[in-house]
């Protein structure tokens, strides 16, 4: 990640960058659907697993849970400056992924019962604040996981980003994913659903590139098998 190059791009292409950043408004507009659906509408489903009963509540995981906002926001801003193709693919992936999630929320509303959070420390207060502002109904799939996995997928496959940054990005994404179950905002199936939807959106937005890589790998594998057979 070259911050000097970022600054140069801002200086030389700031008008186009501003125009590109305006498209992030689409995320705010799409997110309105989350608020509209995040309420009790009659029957709700509980998809708790045995693993969920084993996972303890941990208020300290509220930190990575909230870091999600910075993580997603930073890389959207970064790609608006450095790579407009990845930028728009990320916006499309997140927006369409959210719309698909909203359809699931409407027809298959799930809930996660929350524990009573004791304590006057900052972590307990932050958990209570999240609980207060986010009703426990839009659970499957997890939007936190959806966005984190989409961002992580693009960062990890970006040749311009260093290995160190990729490791940091992956670590943050994993901590965000774990946080969703440790602060009892989601169940395991919510995480699996969010990750599956994220990879589906990544595949759809990068169909040609992914197909070409798969075809290449299959060809190499086939050639190796032929060579082994000839030996």
Automatic annotation (TrEMBL):
GO terms for cellular component: membrane. Residues 67-202 form the Inositolphosphotransferase Aur1/Ipt1 domain. Keywords: Membrane, Transmembrane, Transmembrane helix. Pfam families: PAP2_3 (PF14378). The chain crosses the membrane at residues 21-40, 60-81, 88-108, 163-181, 187-205. It comes from the Bacteria. Signal peptide: none annotated. This is PAP2 superfamily protein.
């Amino acid at each position: 990640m070259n911050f000097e190059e970022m600054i140069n791009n801002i200086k030389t292409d700031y008008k186009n960058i501003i125009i590109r950043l305006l498209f992030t408004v689409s995320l705010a507009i799409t997110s309105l659907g989350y608020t509209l659906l995040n309420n009790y509408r009659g029957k709700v489903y509980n998809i708790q697993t045995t693993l969920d009963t084993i996972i303890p509540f941990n208020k300290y995981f509220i930190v990575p849970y909230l870091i999600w906002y910075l993580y997603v926001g930073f890389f959207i801003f970064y790609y608006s400056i450095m790579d407009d193709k990845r930028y728009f693919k990320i916006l499309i992936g997140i927006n369409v992924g959210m719309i698909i999630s909203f359809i699931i929320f409407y027809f298959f509303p799930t809930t996660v019962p929350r524990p009573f959070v004791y304590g006057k420390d900052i972590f307990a207060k932050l958990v209570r604040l999240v609980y207060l502002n986010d009703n426990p109904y839009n659970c499957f799939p997890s939007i936190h996981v959806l966005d984190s996995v989409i961002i992580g997928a693009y960062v990890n496959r970006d040749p311009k980003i260093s290995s160190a940054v990729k490791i940091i990005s992956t670590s943050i994404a994993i901590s965000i994913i774990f946080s969703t179950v440790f602060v009892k905002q989601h169940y395991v199936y919510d995480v699996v659903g969010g990750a599956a939807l994220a990879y589906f959106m990544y595949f759809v937005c990068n169909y040609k590139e992914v197909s070409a890589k798969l075809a290449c790998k299959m060809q190499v594998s086939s050639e190796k098998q032929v060579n082994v057979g000839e030996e």
